[in-house]
Each structure stands twice: as C-alpha cells, then as structure tokens.
Amino acid sequence: MATYCLTAARLQLVLGNGARRLHISAAYRANAKVSMSRFEPTSFINYERLQSNIDIVRSRLNRPLTLSEKIVYGHLDDPKNQEIDRGRTYLRLRPDRVAMQDATAQMAMLQFISSGLPRVAVPSTIHCDHLIEAQTGGEKDLARAKEINEEVYNFLSSAGAKYGVGFWKPGSGIIHQIILENYAYPGVMLIGTDSHTPNGGGLGSICIGVGGADAVDVMAGIAWELKCPKVIGVKLTGSLSGWTSPKDVILKVAGILTVKGGTGAIVEYHGPGVDSISCTGMATICNMGAEIGATTSVFPYNHRMKTYLEKTGRGDIAAVADQYADLLVPDEGCEYDELIELNLDELKPHINGPFTPDLAHPVSEIGAAAEKHGWPMEVKVGLIGSCTNSSYEDMGRAASVAKQALDKGLKCKAIFTVTPGSEQIRATIERDGYSKILGDVGGVVLANACGPCIGQWDRQDVKKGDKNTIVTSFNRNFTARNDANPATHCFVTSPEIVTAMAIAGTLNFDPETDYLTAANGEKFMLDPPYGDELPAKDFDPGQDTYQHPPPDGSSLKVDVSPKSNRLQLLTPFDKWSGGDLEDMRILIKVKGKCTTDHISAAGPWLKFRGHLDNISNNMLIGAVNSENEAINTLKNYLTGEYDGVPDVARHYKANGVSWVVVGDDNYGEGSSREHAALEPRHLGGRAIIVKSFARIHETNLKKQGVLPLTFNDPSDYDKICPDDKISIQGLKTFAPGKPVTAVLKHSDGSEESIVLLHSFNETQIEWFQAGSALNRMKELM
Fold first, then answer.
1. Where does the Aconitase A/isopropylmalate dehydratase small subunit swivel domain start and stop, copy by copy (predicted)?
2. Counting C-beta atoms within 10 Å of the first and last residue's C-beta, which end of the chain has fewer, N or C?
3. Which 8-state DSSP code applies to residue 607?
4. What is the pLDDT of residues 281-327, one digit of tens each?
5. Which helix (H) or strand (E) holds 28?
6. 688/294 Cα distance (integer angstroms)
7. Confidence band of 395 (pLDDT split at 50, 70, 90)
8. 8 has pLDDT over 60
C-alpha cells in the first residue's frame, strides 16, 4: 500500500513494494519561496487498490464502466458485496481526504469535537476564504478580516493543530483553487464542505460537496454513504476558439439541463473536444456543475492534466498516472443514463441570468433580451475571479482584452474588480504584469478569497433597492446573493466577456461584432482574447500561508468561551419520541425558488456560522411566504400576530409546538451549508415537505434528524393551507421505500390524508431515531 508523500511538492512516495520512489521536482524546489512545511504529508492514492476494486466490480457487473464509475466504485468499502444500481442503492465509500472552508469548518469541527475522537482518520484541511469582506482592496481587506475574525481563526487553527487538520491561513486563497494546486489528482476521491468542491474534476478527480456532518463521518474513519449516482455523458467535439471559453460549455449545459437536471448524477465529459480545453478550464466547467444539481463532474485524464501537474510540482504523480491511464478514462462502449453532444466549433459565448444560473443567452442576444424584459442595460460593476474563473489562463485572457482597451486610451466604464484564486495566482500574475494591466484599466485587486461571489462585499455604489446590473465570472447569481440587494440583476459569463462589458459599460455589447470608440474617436473591434495556459517561468508560490499540524496534538487545548457570540459548543439534539409526529404547525409554506441562500443567508451572517443559536436568527428570512407573498413576515397561530420567521419558530419551540416547512421544487439548491438544516432542527422543526429536494440539502436534513419528505402527488402542495395542522403517521414502522402519511387538519374542522415519500435507507432511519447522525455515531462508539 501507499505510504506518504508531500501533497504539492512530493518529497517522497513509496508505492507498493517500494519499487517506485517519487521525489520533489528540482525546478519547483528551486523556485519555491516558501517553507516546505506548507505541504502536508498525506496518503497518496493507491492505484493498485483502485485497479483491484475496479476489476472486482467490472467482473460482477460484466459491462464497460464510465470514468465516474471507475473512481467511485474504486473507492467502495466492500467492492465484493456492495449492491450497485445507479440511481437506487446507497454506496459505502472510503474517500481519500476532506477539505473544509472556514465558514463550514466551524460547525464541522464543533461536531468532530462533540464526537470525542482524538484525531482525524484521513488527511484533512481547513481553508480560510469565506470571512474576508471586499471593501477597498486586498491588503487592507485582509488585515481587517484578520482582526475582526481573530477568535474564529484562532479556533480553527487550534482545533486543526489538536485534531491533525492542516490549516491554510487567511490570504492563502479560495479552497477550490488550493485543492487544484495541491490535493486533486487523477483518480482521487475527495469530499469538501462546499458545493463547488467538484472543481477538482478538472484534474480527473471525483470531488463532491457535502455538509459538515458528512465530513465528520469521513474524518472519523466511518464509511461514507452516497446514493449510487447516475451518469450523464457530455460528448465534446470540435475545438474552443476565439471568444468562446470553457465557461461557455457549462453555461450552455446549464441552459440544457436547468438547475435540477443533474440532480443525483455525475456529469462526465468526454470526446475529442476535451483536448482543446486546458486543465483549469476543465475545472471551471466542473465547478459550475453544482448549478445544475450534479453530484459532481469529471474529465478524463489527458496531456493537459499532465502538464498542469508538472507545472505545480507534481510531475511524479503524472508519471504514475500515465502507467495507470486506462483507469482514468472511460471504457470503450460504456453507457450513460443521458447523453448530451456539444460541438465546440459551433458554441458561441454565453451569458446566463439574471437571478438563476440556468437562464442561458448567447452574448449576441443578451442586449435584445434585456430590452425586452426591462433589465437594466448599463453594467454598473464587472467582477472577475472567484473559485470558478481565477486561473492564470483566465487572468491572462482578461488582461489581453484590457491591454487592447488601454492601447486605445480607454478604461472601464463600470467599476471593475479582480479576485485572484490563490496566493500562488496572485504572486504569479503580479510578477508577470497581468495585475498591472488589470489595475491600469480600472480594476481593483481584491484579497485571495471568495469576496463578492458569496456576498462578502461592502458595496457602496448603489443603494439597496436600486435596480441595477452587474456582470461576473462567478458561478451563482441568486437574488441578492452578491450584494444583499434583491434589485441587483446579476449575469454570469467568462472573465473575458466580463472585462469587455466593463469596458463598454453595457450588456448590449458583443465583442465578436460590435465596435468600441477609442480616445481619439476612431472605431475599433477587440481581437479575440489570448492567455497562456500556464506561466512560462513556472508559478511563484508567494507567501507561506500553510500551518501543518503537529504529530501529536493531544496536549493542546481548544477553548470556546461561553460568552462568545461567534462560537458555541453543540448540545445533542433530542431523540425521536418513538411515536408519530402529531398536530404540528406549518411554520411557512414557501412559494417558488428556495435556495440555501433563502434558508440561511450568507454575507453578513457568515460571522455567526460557528454559533448555532445566533445564526438561527436568519432562518428562512429570504423565503417567500405563500400566504401573503411577503418575505420574513408570517402569522404566529398561537398569538394571531405577524412576526419574522425565526421569531415565530422560537415562540412555537418555547411553547412545545413542533412545526414543519412546506416547499416547492428543488428545495435547498445551491450551497452545501448544513446550517440550512441545523437551524430548523435547532428551532423545533421536525419535517420539511416539498415537491423535490436538492441532493446535498436532503442529506443534511437527514443528518440532523429532520424528515425530508416529498409529495407523492406534487399537486398535494396546493391542498395545504398555512393555518393547517399536520400529523405525520407511520413512523413506528418507518422503513426504506415505505411511504408515510400526512393528515391535514384544516381550520374548518375537515381532514384529509396525503401520501409522502422519502429516500431514507436503514442507516439513515437510525440517524432519525437517534436524533442525528452524530448522536448515532456516539451510540456506536
């Protein structure tokens, strides 16, 4: 079996019987400006074990396997006996590592502390990227964040040291870029407490976004459960060229599949067109696969990945991957549950939005669409970067557009911001002059962090409620997500299109056909963008921002003050009573889209992600109440008064009244934040009844002992009145595949019953009965 290697530098790996030794790239060592301690020892994937598991499964299934199946089934806990049926059975898996961003790591580490375990069982890291608010610029914003969040950073740093978790300090970069640069590689399985963890699929990895409780399972050494994914194939032919970028692939796919079309499936890209896409471009496509509900996305191993591995000091991994290349591509003749074909020669630049990432438009048509729908034409702000599009190539292509404008005496008409994905990207684009070009055209370089993409943006140019348009290279554009202004129309596109539109100052600009006016009055067109895939001089690693945990942290202490308003130790949730859930109130019947942003908003609320009671004050404050079509205003049926959603929930809980939420389709789409499940549980919620769920949120609810239930007949949503009482019956005989009954007691005294479905398996039913998955884990210890 594999012993150890250094994650990006690869000091040494001994594989199998010791015949192969891999060493750090001499070129990388010579160029590194950082202490080698930033690269933690971590178990390197054992391709021989992967091969063995795949052989076992292939012989059992007797058919060719997709790439997704190879990597997923290659990580089965028991490949000889595991029941495998795509879309039906639950798989027990052994992921190779865990990654957590700082906003979700707080609750994950608090849950791990509650487990009583002394140290994580698999390599794990914490990444400080979510708590840095964009205000004036990278340096000042980072300094301010370190001061404001000192208590949280100290908690995460000390908890990491005690329990064996690596700690990437604030300023190191966005979790997904760090993973791509250091931890992802072909064939690895990684879970991360962020919905855009699939970014690693650009390097041939199966990287899946999960809630913190799932991360705790893996860190505890427990086999992790995942419903066996279906596989959607996307066959790419032709080649990308001109203004068309990798981002346009996923923008087009999102338009085809919609925000729920990938639910329960892995999207697997293949075909001759793959080779025209850079490794980081593939990561962009996989990253935004979260917006179609996909479990994850993945590309087959090829020479673009090999080059990226070599440039990031991991040529030794590429050499071993080459020897196992047949494991890292789909089998000839494998079958997909659904197949989409895209000709990249015909694909045009796209821009999606507003308010949903699947409303796809060719750039050539967005001006007409904006005029038709009354969307603001003026682009107020253009924002490039984020975990989706902050690679060296992305920044180079944006800079090539900016340079053309500067040469003609132009600067951006819109405010323009630039977010480097990592310290390595920041240092390299600064060295190579991209930062200066982007700054000269009017750009402000922000901290190496999520920033405006997740609502960490102290926006001052418009007032809340003012209708306006922003254009970003981000991945998500839900209402009020970026700046807390529900009137902001956000459109997502590629960094080069964002840059062009920021220069033009309008949505009604297609760089393939439209002209700009130079400072001297002459008309000119922008040439198609160009950017080197990787730096010619190798990457500049920048400052050392990694803290490696000590070999033994058992003597270290992690203090959480009982007076803190940022951190709070967890109290176990109560167990199931043993009976049916009777006469529960409907807290809110939600109308329309209800994402995790609606359920547990980010932005200014991120500071409370480690304090369950405080953050519960944002529960469902963004959801639309079907009774009055208002936000955060609903009737308390105990008092007859109207109040905010969390206030009514607290009042019901204080009076011993359990409650449910009723919702629409794809409930809980978006982020992996488990706070959207923890908050309802904390405030007395027992069930969420909807037409359909997003994958991660449904699992998070199960983990916390809440019942996620779906209507057998979606039209039953209309039978429920906000003043009804609901009883859920059949819990004494709760079993996989067996529906439960909801009895609706209407205010006029009449009653009716409806059938509710669930996707619980036997293990998950034990979570419910114990009160939570964490409670069940402790029962078994």
1. 584-713
2. C
3. G
4. 999 999 999 999 999 999 999 999 999 999 999 999 999 999 999 99
5. helix 26-31
6. 22
7. very high
8. no
Distance CA 34, CA 545 (A): 9
What is the number of other CB atoms lying within 10 angstroms of the CB of residue 647? 16
CB atoms within 10 A of CB 119: 16
Q: HSE-up of 728 (CA within 13 Å, CB side)?
A: 30
Element (H, E) at 6: strand 4-6
Q: What is the DSSP letter of 188?
A: -
Please enumerate in sequence order all residues whose Cβ is within 8 A of that of 147, keeping only pairs 6 or more positions apart, or say none.
none
Catalogue the active-site residues: 129-130, 194, 476, 671, 673
What is the token pair recorded at 431?
């060295």
Count of Cβ atoms closer than 10 Å to residue 463 Cβ: 10
Model pLDDT, residue 43: 43
**Between the CA of residue 22 and those of 17, 306, 317, 539, what are the distances in Å?**
13, 15, 8, 21
Count other Cβ atoms within 10 Å, centred on residue 62: 6
- For 256, residues 6+ apart whose C-beta sits below 8 A from its C-beta are 340
Based on its alpha-carbon atoms, the radius of gyration of the chain, rounded to whole angstroms, reads 25
Look at residue 198 and tell me whether its pLDDT is greater than 90: yes
Query: 385 forms bridges with which residues in the sheet?
Result: 389, 419
pLDDT at 670: 84
Tokens of 471: 């254009």
d(CA 40, CA 7): 6
Specify the DSSP element, H or E, that contains 41: strand 41-43
Q: Could you report the per-residue pLDDT of 248-272, keeping only the tens digit for each?
A: 999 999 999 999 999 999 999 999 9
Torsional class of 576: left (φ above 0), alpha (ψ -120 to 50), beta (otherwise): beta
Separation between Cα atoms, residue 289 and residue 247, nearest integer Å: 11
CA distance linking residue 351 with residue 528, whole number of Å: 17
Please, which residues bridge with residue 332 across strands? none
Residue 488 forms beta bridges with which residues? Answer: 468
DSSP conformational letter for 707:
E
* Torsion angles phi and psi, residue 679, rounded to 5: -65, -50
Q: What token pair was written down for 144?
A: 């301010």
Q: How many CB atoms lie within 10 A of CB 198?
A: 30
CA distance linking residue 152 with residue 608, whole number of Å: 10
Hey, what amino acid is at 579?
Answer: G
Hunting for tokens 């959207």 — which residue is that? 676
**What is the predicted pLDDT for the residue at 602?**
86
Burial annotation 403-415 (CB, 10 A radius, 16+ → b, else e): bbbbebebebbbb
**Which two tokens mark 541?**
């690693």
Report residue 613 as tokens. Answer: 């009671």
User: How far is it, in rounded angstroms, from Cα 297 to Cα 317?
Assistant: 21
CA–centroid distance for 23 within its chain: 33
Q: Is 218 helix (H, G, I), strand (E, B) or coil?
A: helix
Reference 472, options 342, 353, 316, 374; nearest CA is: 353
Sign of CA dihedral 268, 273, 279, 281: negative
Burial (0-12, 13-18, 19+ Cβ within 10 Å), 309? buried
Vertex 725, ends 719 and 730: CA angle to 5°? 90
* CA pair distance 106, 111, nearest whole angstrom: 9
Nearest CA among 540, 13, 598 for reference residue 2: 13
pTM greater than the 0.85 cutoff = yes
- For 463, list phi and psi in degrees, rounded to 5: -90, 150
CB neighbour class for 128 (10 Å; exposed up to 12, middle 13-18, buried from 19) = buried
Distance CA 156, CA 175 (A): 15
CA–CA gap between residue 274 and residue 285 (Å, rounded): 11
- DSSP codes, 342-410: EETTT---EEE-SSSTT-EEEHHHHHHHHHHHT---BEEEEEEETTTB-SHHHHHHHHHHHHHHHHTT-
Residues forming a β-bridge with 689? 662, 709
The pair of structure tokens assigned to 349 is 């630049």
